[in-house]
Design a protein that fits this description.
This protein has three domains: about 110 residues, SH3 type barrels (Roll), CATH 2.30.30; about 160 residues, Nucleotidyltransferase, domain 5; about 50 residues. The chain is about 35% helix and about 20% strand. The protein has eleven helices and 14 strands. The strands form four sheets. It has a five-stranded mixed β-sheet with strand order 4-3-2-5-6, sandwiched between helices. Helix 5 crosses helix 6 and helix 10 packs antiparallel against helix 11. It starts with a helix and ends in a 9-residue tail after the last helix.
Length: about 325
């Protein structure tokens, strides 16, 4: 009996009929000593392109916190709004950004006077902000790995959610520049995440999430207590809630009570039926890697000789991983469009 539930999970009809509301509790432990004491922050920002979508990615130092914001276009107003969101996020926790380094993109250079108290430092033409460029490459590698593991096609509308999820995972990992061993998110919030709620689901995981409207229909036996959802990314709240994609309403919901279940063919078919889907093709994936290697060549030219060995090692490992992935994907189900 236990093996049956381990393999197939709980029975969906039983979940939709018996699930009751549980009181939401704080699932994080506050540690004020873990929060960074240096409030002055310097940001390095650049634009990340994913298919036809654009994102503003910035790194806050010495927090080493990665921030991301989707922008509609590369117009001055849209990019300025994205940068302002990053500044407001830091200020919400008591940190004060004092300087922001950007590429000489005309839309980033134009709003220099739109951020009071923040110095906008524009790099020279042809220069590369290696710190944020390497972080963007790591983000793309992580997202590419997640997409390759999904059993369904990922729609373009979920691309923003995937980017948010990848950044949330990256902020849970400490870096070599952080000597205290704490991850950037803990240094930023002072709250240590709960393993069960923060790392329980993963992007694309099928869950049955509790429907809060079910208590209003307690006498209606046709109203299900749970709804089929796809996990997207954690909300970073104390109650450990997540954002989900509701398969019934085709909209976003935030829930703090859910039950993970094995992926079924019905769920895969429902996700594949979404409009605007895209996929990965090994040929276009290789072209993407060639572009990253070209960027790596530019990074090599910008680095001193003593630092080129580590950059070359990263590029070699990246190329080896893609070659292994191409061999495994002899019959690709997906193709970048």
């Amino acid at each position: 009996m236990h093996r049956f539930y381990d393999i197939y999970g709980a029975q969906i009809p039983a979940l939709r009929g018996h699930t009751t509301k549980k009181r939401a509790k704080s699932s994080v432990m506050s540690d004020s000593a873990a929060k960074a004491q240096v409030t002055k922050q310097k940001l390095t920002a650049d634009v990340m392109h994913l298919l036809d979508q654009k994102f503003i990615v910035s790194i806050s130092s010495p927090l080493e916190l990665v921030l991301i914001c989707h922008v509609k276009s590369l117009q001055v107003d849209d990019l300025g709004t994205g940068v302002q969101k990053h500044l407001n996020t830091l200020r919400s926790r008591g940190f004060e950004p004092s300087r922001i380094h950007v590429d000489p993109h005309k839309a980033l250079v134009a709003p220099q006077t739109s951020f009071p108290g923040v110095e906008v430092d524009v790099s020279g033409a042809g220069d590369h902000l290696s710190k944020v460029d390497i972080k963007i490459r790591r983000l793309k590698e992580m997202m590419r790995s997640i997409v390759a593991a999904l059993p369904f096609k990922l729609s373009r509308e979920r691309l923003k959610d995937l980017a948010t999820y990848a950044v949330s995972r990256m902020n849970l990992c400490s870096t070599a520049s952080l000597t205290d061993g704490e991850c950037p998110r803990v240094r930023f919030t002072g709250n240590k995440p709960d393993f069960k709620s923060e790392l329980g689901p993963s992007f694309g995981q099928y869950v049955e999430a509790y429907n809060p409207r079910s208590h209003q229909h307690s006498n209606d036996i046709t109203f299900a207590r749970t709804e089929p959802c796809i996990a997207l990314y954690p909300s970073a709240k104390r109650n450990g809630s997540w954002f989900f994609y509701n398969l019934n309403t085709k909209g976003y919901v935030r829930r703090s009570q859910w039950r993970k279940l094995p992926m079924t063919q019905m769920v895969i078919s429902a996700m594949n039926a979404d409009e605007g889907d895209f996929s990965i093709d090994t040929r276009e994936l290789a072209e993407d890697v060639v572009g990253e290697l070209a960027e790596g060549r530019q990074l090599l030219d910008a680095h001193p000789l003593s630092e080129r060995v580590s950059v070359l090692g990263c590029l070699g490992m990246r190329l080896l991983a893609v070659m292994k992935l191409a061999i495994q994907m002899k019959k690709p189900r997906y193709s970048w469009k």
